[in-house]
């Protein structure tokens, strides 16, 4: 996604379409980037609805700025530049788009506006899929939210998209020295929040779930369907980090305490004891879409989606989201 030394075929075609006033050709040339631009906005904002809105704003800006495109950058780079600045403008106006203290003793903070990202909306371009999993996983997206907006943009453009420093500087109207400094600070913050994670996002990363992840996900769903408290407890690591959004926030609890807390909240009790589940993925992570049939109901209705981080055969992190009224997840509303 970096600038080329000579103008390419797409750039020439775009300029020709603009000069000819050909909106159909304009659309053909720009729409191919919609999915990767939306993922870019999601990384910046951590919220699917916001990413959709800002992607649409990007296309409006591209249309209004179309006559300023001169081919000095690739069309992809130019559109990402516009998307980045649209996100920065959004963040400058929204003071509710920053992490908040969780109240936990280890000073963890929460991202209450975090939403899952449906895998079916991820780019199909191999250039993007090389790094897609680790840079859309929830831990990465949450960690990015702890960066000031401009540092956030610098990190994503430099370390995820692989732009050279001069290109980032031009996109953000900064000096190369400022970009270098911002990147160093951003990397330090990311190391704090992802201290046990792989941090080289520009080298190939896994795309598919491992057999271990698939087995644990299947067991997690089966434990719900059998109302199997012991089986569910056995799947959880004893320092489980659990988050429910929107709702109760983040807790770090032992496996037994976690399950007992869920039971106290109604899990497997009357009205919440007839479950069905679908194995799926969001954010390139294993996820269980959970459906419940209430008393007198004839169908199991989608209630929530549990996104799992699995290591060594155990669930180490569980992030639950209310899945109702989110058709963009692509899940059937009933089973």
Describe it:
The protein is globular and about 65 Å long. It is built from 13 helices and eight strands. Strands 4-3-8-7-6-5 form a six-stranded mixed β-sheet. It has a two-stranded antiparallel sheet with strand order 1-2. It is α+β, with helices and mostly antiparallel strands and 335 residues long. It folds into two domains: 9-193, Orthogonal Bundle (Rna Polymerase Sigma Factor, Chain: A); 211-329, Roll (Nuclear Transport Factor 2, Chain: A). α3 packs across α4 (48-64) and α3 runs parallel beside α5 (75-93). The two termini are 42 Å apart. Keywords: Sigma factor, Transcription, Transcription regulation. Residues 30-95 form the RNA polymerase sigma-70 region domain. It holds the Pfam family Sigma70_r2.
List keywords for this structure.
335 residues, alpha+beta, Rna Polymerase Sigma Factor, Chain: A, 2 domains, two-stranded antiparallel sheet, 13 helices, 16% strand, globular
Major sheet: size, sense and barrel closure? 6 strands, mixed
| CATH third-tier fold name of the largest domain | Rna Polymerase Sigma Factor, Chain: A
- Strand proportion: 15-25%
At CATH level 2, the architecture of the largest domain is Orthogonal Bundle
The CATH homologous superfamily of the largest domain is termed RNA polymerase sigma factor, region 2, helix turn helix motif
Mean pLDDT: 89
User: How many structurally independent domains?
Assistant: 2
- Within the largest sheet, what's the order of strands? 4-3-8-7-6-5
User: What oligomeric assembly is this protein in?
Assistant: single chain
């Amino acid at each position: 996604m970096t600038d080329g030394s000579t103008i390419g075929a797409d750039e020439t075609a775009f300029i020709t379409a603009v000069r000819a006033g050909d909106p159909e050709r304009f659309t053909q040339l720009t729409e191919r980037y919609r999915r990767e631009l939306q993922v870019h906005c999601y990384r910046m904002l951590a919220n699917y609805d916001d990413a959709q809105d800002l992607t649409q704003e990007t296309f409006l800006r591209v249309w209004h700025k179309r006559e300023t495109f001169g081919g000095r950058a690739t069309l992809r780079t130019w559109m990402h530049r516009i998307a980045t600045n649209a996100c920065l403008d959004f963040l400058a106006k929204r003071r509710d788009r920053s992490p908040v203290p969780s109240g936990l003793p280890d000073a963890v903070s929460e991202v209450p506006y975090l939403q899952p990202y449906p895998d079916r909306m991820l780019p199909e371009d191999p250039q993007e899929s090389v790094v897609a999993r680790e840079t859309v996983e929830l831990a990465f997206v949450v960690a990015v939210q702890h960066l000031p907006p401009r540092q956030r943009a610098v990190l994503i453009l430099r370390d995820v998209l692989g732009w050279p420093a001069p290109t980032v500087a031009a996109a953000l109207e900064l000096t190369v020295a400022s970009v270098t400094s911002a990147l160093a600070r951003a990397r330090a913050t990311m190391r704090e929040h992802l201290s046990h994670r792989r941090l080289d996002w520009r080298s190939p990363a896994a795309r598919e779930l491992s057999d271990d992840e698939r087995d644990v996900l299947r067991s997690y769903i089966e434990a719900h369907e059998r109302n199997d408290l012991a089986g569910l407890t056995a799947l959880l690591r004893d320092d489980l980090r659990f988050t429910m959004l929107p709702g109760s926030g983040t807790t770090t609890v032992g496996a037994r305490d976690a399950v007992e807390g869920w039971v106290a909240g109604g899990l497997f009790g009357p009205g919440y004891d007839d479950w069905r589940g679908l194995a799926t993925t969001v954010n390139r992570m294993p996820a269980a879409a959970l459906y419940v049939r209430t008393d007198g109901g004839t169908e199991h209705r989608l209630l929530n989606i549990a996104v799992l981080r699995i290591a060594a055969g155990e669930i180490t992190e569980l992030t639950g989201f209310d899945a109702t009224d989110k058709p963009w997840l692509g899940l059937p509303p009933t089973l």
